[in-house]
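User: Write out your own:

AI:
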Amino acid sequence: MIDQISLVVLFCFFFFGMTAFSLLINSILLRFIKTLGTKNQPGMVVRWSSETKPAIGGLAFYIVFLISLCVYSIVFDPIEVFKNTAILGLLCAATLGFLMGLTDDAYNTKPLLKLGVQVLCGLILVFSGTTIDASGSLLFNQFLTIAWVVGIMNSINMLDNMDGISTSVSAFVLVAALIYMSGHGSFMDVDFLLLTGILSALVGFLFYNWNPSSIFMGDTGSQFLGVILGYIGIKYCWNAEPLSQISSPLMGVSTLLIVFLLPIIDTTVVTINRLRIGQSPFVGGRDHTTHNLSYIGLSDRQVAIAFCITSALSVLFYSVIIFYSESNNYFTFGLTLSYFLVVFLFLFGVTEYNKKRKPEESATNPEIVNQ
């Protein structure tokens, strides 16, 4: 049995070691890979950035993910990895999401194929035992789980539209899950080491992805992260248990709205605005909440900082709910909903303001293939 001091040293060594590894592997990839994931086709505007940059961030994420599983099986308990159906399901779903993203970055696949793979990722999680427990109906819970996984995979992909945004927002979701496990004393759980490793990969990647970036995450990263964050949302939001209490649907919705605040709001705002003008939400464009903040005068770096601050506040709010709130506390739910609505109305209001001020800037562009 590892004592507490040794455990702290181990996790610190692992986190900083994997951060250094992420920095190194991204540096190597940048040196030798110049075109993978650029989707550079004549006449196409691909991203918010005017520069063509490789979208290879997901490679480091996936490698660190595999290393984390190997380290846990060596240092702690191999049975917890190789005989844990939930972890094996996560491994399969994350691998499938990674391969789908890699294929999309290389060949720009059809939306229906991507959707089919996302549904399959959700099914893998369901049949491996990771299911939302929101009602007494198993069929409803399974359907909700699949819808959630598909939704968050697309949300993270859509949020990857400006330097540092998707990376930093995802990192704060991981921090929230790690705080939850710390409060429950789950340091020996495979999830703790796994999420610590992925967080270190994001920190290392952010060094190159922060504005002005030299590398993009691409679908390789966003599809992989979508599966991981979907898994986190199920275990540590939908099915979250406050300290010394049982979970409840009210608690699940409250924590979900807080931890996934920005991905949910950005996807919702974009979907509403595009449907209002008769366009598909899945067509890329420069009408995201991040873009609209830029239109009112914020620099790309200031937008990223604003999203980081909002995410940090959300993690703090989540921690208070988990540690101090009762599972069926209607006051907490009301406060959570109010916080969500304030951020939503502000960001939605910014898009409305830009439509009236400069309609041509806030319109979607069907030639843009990246959300």
DSSP finds 15 helices and no strands in the chain. The chain has one domain: 4-362. The CA atoms of residues 258 and 314 lie 5 Å apart. Residues 40-46, 362-371 have pLDDT under 50 and may be disordered.
